[in-house]
Amino acid sequence: MKMQYFHIAREVSLSSKMAKRMGACLVKGGKIISSGFNERKYSKLARFHDSKTRHAEISALLGVPKDKSRGADVYVYREWKNGRIADSKPCPPCLVQLRLAGVDRIYYSILDGFEGMKL
Ligand SMILES: [Zn+2]
To answer: Do residues 79 and 21 touch, judged by C-beta distance below 8 A?
Structure first.
């Protein structure tokens, strides 16, 4: 677990317009290969009632070929707009996608620090 990647995930999260801003970055071989933040998913057909959110981990995975994501680590950071750190343990559907992408380990913020686990 390297704190520098949490700092980057936090920087990315600041682009989010959600009440709880979440950022994620994919790291492989000491390099950031992708990043993303949580945002509302709009579609032309369901513009006003679609309140579904695209989670930061999924945004980070979008467009990344599997041979790149395989063996990567993901760092996820979440905080409230007031800057208070929040739990960012990936939800079950995101865990499935991370696993399918071949991600090796995930690290995430919790209320009083950080945790990690192997997928
Ligand atoms: Zn999720």
So the answer is: yes
